[in-house]
Amino acid sequence: MDIKYTINAEEIFKARNSSLYKYGKDFAEIQDVIKKIGSKPVIDMVSDEHKALTDRDAKEIAKLGLISVELIRDDPKKFLAYLNSLVVIDLSVLAKLVIHYQLFGGTILELGTEQHHKKYFPDIKHMKIVGGFGMTEMGHGSNVRNIETIAEYDHQSKEFVINSPTPSSTKFWIGNLAKYGTHCVLFCKLIYKGEDKGVHGIVTPIRDVDTKQVFPGIEIGDCGPKIGWNGIDNAWIRFRNYRVPKENLLNKFANIDDKGEYTCKLPTPGKLFQNTISQLVFGRMLYICGPVRVLNINLKTVINYALSRRQFGEKGKSEELIMNYPSHYQVLLPMLGHLVAFEIARDSVIERLFDKNEEKLDETNSIISGVKALVNEYNMTCTNKLRTFCGGNGISSYNLFGYFRNEMDIFQTAEGDGAVLYQQLSKFLLSEYKKWYKKEGVTGYIIKEVQTFLATSNPIYTHSRSIPYILSNEFHHHAFSYRFEKMRSIVIEKLSHSKSKKMTFMQSWNDTLLYIIELSKAYTHLYILEQAHLSIKRCTDPPTRQLLNDLIKLYALSSIENDFGFYRNYNCISAGQALKISEAIKELCIAIKPYALDIINTDNSTSFDIPLAKDGNYIQHMASRVGIPFSKL
Amino acid sequence: MDIKYTINAEEIFKARNSSLYKYGKDFAEIQDVIKKIGSKPVIDMVSDEHKALTDRDAKEIAKLGLISVELIRDDPKKFLAYLNSLVVIDLSVLAKLVIHYQLFGGTILELGTEQHHKKYFPDIKHMKIVGGFGMTEMGHGSNVRNIETIAEYDHQSKEFVINSPTPSSTKFWIGNLAKYGTHCVLFCKLIYKGEDKGVHGIVTPIRDVDTKQVFPGIEIGDCGPKIGWNGIDNAWIRFRNYRVPKENLLNKFANIDDKGEYTCKLPTPGKLFQNTISQLVFGRMLYICGPVRVLNINLKTVINYALSRRQFGEKGKSEELIMNYPSHYQVLLPMLGHLVAFEIARDSVIERLFDKNEEKLDETNSIISGVKALVNEYNMTCTNKLRTFCGGNGISSYNLFGYFRNEMDIFQTAEGDGAVLYQQLSKFLLSEYKKWYKKEGVTGYIIKEVQTFLATSNPIYTHSRSIPYILSNEFHHHAFSYRFEKMRSIVIEKLSHSKSKKMTFMQSWNDTLLYIIELSKAYTHLYILEQAHLSIKRCTDPPTRQLLNDLIKLYALSSIENDFGFYRNYNCISAGQALKISEAIKELCIAIKPYALDIINTDNSTSFDIPLAKDGNYIQHMASRVGIPFSKL
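Predict the joint structure of the above. Result:
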């Protein structure tokens, strides 16, 4: 391979940010406020001080009046673009705004009715009231359905009486509420005439808006220092016969009318539950945006450093750039391929989510779950590796590896741990397959199996060692599809097998869990690849298209290499082919290496002040940061 | 498999800590001081305050007079046991003591002579002087040979004139010196009569012992906040015609006599250099102890939590313990297997290092490099996974996942980045092979190759799917040896092949780098396995032996599974065998699961106050930590 690419920065940026491209890279008004308040990553501050600063800065940004709950409804992409443009300030401030507008406000928007919108939206907009999202309890994280906080309806006073009946029912990690918040969307079991009606959302005042006094009946405190997000005041909360008026029930789907009658518009408690926790999907989408952005930033730091730091080399010559060691570029450049693939996938889920296609809602939610789990896992692994690629300089807080790792760690389990989210996607995939199977019947099934068999046992497929074939998008798509379909048949086979062993469905599901998770990963990888291939086709600029295509090939081949165990054990590729794949990866890396800096520089929208990321002169930038007076040299 | 183990806690502890066992689990005197000073992990403090606290606490421990440089010489295991007993305080304090006694004091011990020992040891003991290790520069990390700081000998005044000639020569990350240190072992190029004599160590006073004033000719400052070790005051230092008397040269090997003659006892500059940086080996050994200990602590937290936290489950029943999900125990228990294997390997390198067998010095140093790189990489990956296994509670600083990750991150690159250390080991392995090859000649070589070929092409080996065979230590040793030997032939083949392409040795080495690193990993895995098998044989208590053996089998099989790509691509195992290996891992996990808590509890020497790690009552412990008043319930 001897490739020369042409870099068209604008086109590459557009392809890497298709969904929000039309909003431009920044918003002047917000940038002005940021400059004024001077918010930047907090790297050396005690958490109480950090919380106070975060509260101040979030309110400064709110004062602008640009962000509002209505915007989520009217132009959600613009809402997202605003959040995106804020990824230059301390991430706790951003998190505070997200909890307040999207989780708290968005829940009122989706589950509440006109009266709630009128009553709360204006005060939310300017953060006159500050909201939290009261879901998690000490004993209940991902399994929201089992939360224990109860709101019993009192017919006499037309109020809900809220209680925390057990230690494990204590609300925990409730963001924005330990010190500064005033309201909370409280998720609790609604008890109506002694009957448990399931999880409902109730707007619950916590502190007096003016005096900031906590109301009687509420015990509240701070959850203490955390790995990240230390600017957020996460609360534990306990209720003791705390009363809120019935109007505070978010009653779009379930209502108690003036006569005290409980009604629910949705056909099943399951549907009600699904709608009740719907804001989590938007949150998960943000939890895809975060790590993708961070991967971008960290790669920029590492690529700049790798092209300026020298170490070891031939005697008598200047030391070698660390970028030129295969232990460096063969790790770094596949990450760049993943970044671009992830960016395209992120844009595709944004489009899907805002498309609001009711029929595809389940599919969208499931895909978001898979992508959220995958990119977070990948990003955390990368962050660690990338830090080591900067040696001691990577340890300096100024270069933000530690900062981003700490801030991103939470993303891995918040709003759904990877293992739980992967299961959610697999459930969807299996139920889709069941539908298809029912429609096509056994004949369709057999045809499909035979096709797969033929495709993989055909030596042209499994044994071709020709580099053009190995580099072809067809091969990649074929391999990813095969992995997905094979995992699906394995899961189905294992589930049916354990059925014959008289296990309950739950037992058999859990017994198959590792394969179920693999199935989900395989599908997510395939989904990302397909979105990337589609996006490449849409790209009208030929040089950009070629470059993107090669980056996606790197994503595909390095994923296959990473999973050689599977591909070999299930006879999708031969040993000889596997070795050729590793060679192809190396060649792609060597071809892309001279362009790595230009590629990563096409997105300059994040302007964190990172000494190693500026340019080739890391010694100068580190020196000026720690106050070394070179001028006197 | 239906195994019942008998847990003999004392025997297991002994097997897991054979090297330091005779020193007991703690030292009463040190524990008293720790109680008095109340040092514990610092999780929410600005770095300047943390540095002051660290300085105070380190000096309190020094006051006891138990630790000294002489102890490193007279009873290094006791020295190590003291350090080990300190892994209950904030790790910055420990780091400060290590830099001071081992790196600073140890270098004076090894490179200095009687006069230096007499002059400095008493003041080092009680930390009247506080020392640092002045090696790294802004432009030079792992490649110590290229440091630029110069010490030119002035014959007239019999002094060295020290200068930092370039920005990149600025000393950087020099621990203990930014605020509180008084002396430094400075590594610099000795210029004698205009000739560069290579890297030498010179004791260099930095601050006045009484007034703490920095001496003229020195510019010094703090490197700023870091990912971890924020109690350490890391300095940047620049010298301008700073003079130190010739007596300060550590002159055991290289000396300038009273007549101004430079002499060196060692045959080559390479040998002098190797001796000069010898303290790094001891440091690397400590960098093995650290992550192994941390893996132990984190596993204890996660196992306790997994046996108390419940999530999801059959309808109408209480939720399932998270330990019972394969996505949990099939990840967690192989880590427990690795922990025990690593503990045994750690003990074996301690024995090797203190054995001081000159002939085996090279081998020992190389093995330590490989083990250091491997355990640190493994531990960092585990820490992230283990954090997610505790969900939101893992995010709380009180459970120390973030703390340990931040403190351990530095270990990955300090005193040698993994990629550099693996290369060091591979160089040793290849030169050993060359020696053997020369001795045995072509016949020996062919016999060895044929043996390997027979062993692996024999279907009994490569295709046996019998579980007893797959579980046998012979199979594991065979597979690990095969991987090592195969990687070695691949590397040799690639190196000779590129020779024919007229590459320089350096080019050809770098072109083969990924394989060279794999070779080193393969050997390190094999070394650990062999040490574990030896240790099991030495264990005289049959139930303990069986349990240890099964834990090591889990280490071995999960390593093989993790590297299925290699084993399949190089025809060491068949596809059918691979699937059986995964089954065997599952069975081993299921057998060990009920004993996991007892196993991890055999080592209670670390008594960090971690809420989740105490026992099954995590809600109570978290609640009491954040002040939730359950008593009123």
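The CA atoms of residues 370 and 521 of chain B lie 7 Å apart.
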